[in-house]
Amino acid sequence: MSDELGAWQLILNSDPTLLAIVRLSLAVSLSAVALAALAGMPLGALLALTRFPGRSALVVLLNALMGLPPVVVGLAVYLLLSRSGPLGAMGILFTPTAMVIAQTILIVPIIAALTRQTVEDLWVEYRDELSAMDVSPAGRMTTLLWDARFSLLTALLAGFGRAAAEVGAVMIVGGNIDGFTRTMTTAVALETSKGNLPLAMGLGLILVVIVLAINAAAWGTRVWSERQAG
Q1: In the chain, what is the greatest distance between 2 CA atoms, to the nearest angstrom?
Q2: pLDDT tens for residues 63-93?
Q3: Could you tell me the CA-to-CA distances from 120 to 46, 131, 136, 171, 185 in Å, in that order?
Q4: Which of 1, 72, 86, 220 has its CA 20 to 30 A from that of 12?
Q5: Contacts of 31 (CB under 8 A, 6+ apart)
Q6: Which domains can be identified in the chain, with CATH numbers?
Q7: CA distance 39 to 157
Q8: Strand ranges in 37-114 using DSSP code E only, listed in sequence order
Q9: What's the CA gap between 2 and 147, in Å, rounded?
Q10: C-alpha to C-alpha distance for 209 and 25, rounded to whole angstroms
Q11: Cα distance between residue 156 and residue 162, in whole Å
């Protein structure tokens, strides 16, 4: 009971260490989701609306990449950004930027695959109408992405959930440096191993609340959009 009480005291007293970890975690994860959306949504829409040799294989590969092992991604990014790596001159290893890169790589396949399925379903519904209006390929993509914007919240949430829960990749490329690259998940793992359960539990509670709040907001937005459409 004392550990639970200590966790709540840290939260209610706005413990500076706890808040700094939460801020960094949100900044990294939200930045990764934004970058992954910029890359993944057009890619998913392109795969949904075009036909070319090897498309089926690419779709299968994209779906397979949704299960990329985080530690493998972390290792790959580490090798790219290390001093002996091709991007070592950038000097961003063990920084939040490296963590954003790793998380972005992890969630691009998720957002792209879910976007492809959503847009492909819409294309079946609107194909005749858009073809009759002679809408350009770029126009089709833009129209369908806009029409599916509320449905695509699911893809963004899936990406955020993967990013927010990530431990292995960010541990490797970020180094879990106190006050600089320590996120909620890496801090929970470290503090639990150290026996500092109040801080670990406090961070765990906040992480769960954040995920629930974002999902509730997305659900509310979708219900509102459906009512407006009706």
Answers
A1: 68
A2: 999 888 999 999 999 999 999 889 988 999 9
A3: 10, 15, 16, 36, 35
A4: 220
A5: 100
A6: 2-229 (1.10.3720.10)
A7: 16
A8: none
A9: 51
A10: 14
A11: 10
